[in-house]
Amino acid sequence: EFHFLVVDDESTDDSREILASYAPRVKSLLQARQGQAAAFNNGLAAATGDIVCLLDSDDVFLPGKLEAVMSAFKDPKVVCAQHFLNDTDAKLIPLPRRFPAWPARYTLDDYTAGRTEFTATSGLSFRRETLQKLLPIPKDLFYYLDDFLTAHALFFGEIANIPSVLGLHRMHGANWCAGGLEDPKKIERDFQDRALYYSYRERWLDEAGRSRSPEAVDAER
């Protein structure tokens, strides 16, 4: 059984009217403008399924995604599953993309050694019981919400890597993923959020008595 939950962070277009047209098949969580982190926190807290699949507003799931994800979670050691996303333009025309050579699984050892490559939000799924340990996402974090959840999940179990394109990641002039390296404001925000994310990561490592390898530190630098 599948449930659909959409969080609307006070849209200024006709999103709420469209959502109403799908009721009651789609549950809507309508909130006053609080930002992306609050949308994540409120939506994930309201989710009732055992497995939670994330989908950003501009993106698309492809046929076969849910079946592949559910199969990955048959192993109780898996707390998160990720799959490839194909970047596209506004009309969903694919853009050139390099995909990593993923192993079947990632563990915390892979992360501390700097061997992990993560997909974006719409390629991520989690056990709900794991998400309850990862939340809340800091309200000041805008970028790196996906990394915040994915990296933190490795402290509780393994990530299953599904080397298939099961979603489309739309990038166009009106969304935050487009032109990030050309916009000084986006670059500045990226550095601020990266520093905040790293501060939380160091806390997780300290609590687990772990540290990153010199190679991982050098690669990140």
Which features would summarize this protein structure in a list?
two-stranded parallel ribbon; 21% strand; 221 residues; alpha/beta; single chain; six-stranded mixed sheet; globular
Percent helix, as a range, is 25-40%
One letter per element, helices H and strands E, the order comes to EHEHEEHEEHEHHEHH
- Structural class comes to alpha/beta
Number of helices: 8
Low-confidence stretches: none
Strand fraction band? Answer: 15-25%
Sum up the overall morphology in one term: globular
Distance between the termini: 45 Å
The overall pLDDT, averaged over residues, is 92
Gyration radius over CA: 17 Å
Quick gist of this model?
By secondary structure, the chain is α/β, with parallel strands linked by helices. It is 36% helix and 21% strand. Strand 1 (4-9), helix 1 (15-21) and strand 2 form a beta-alpha-beta unit.
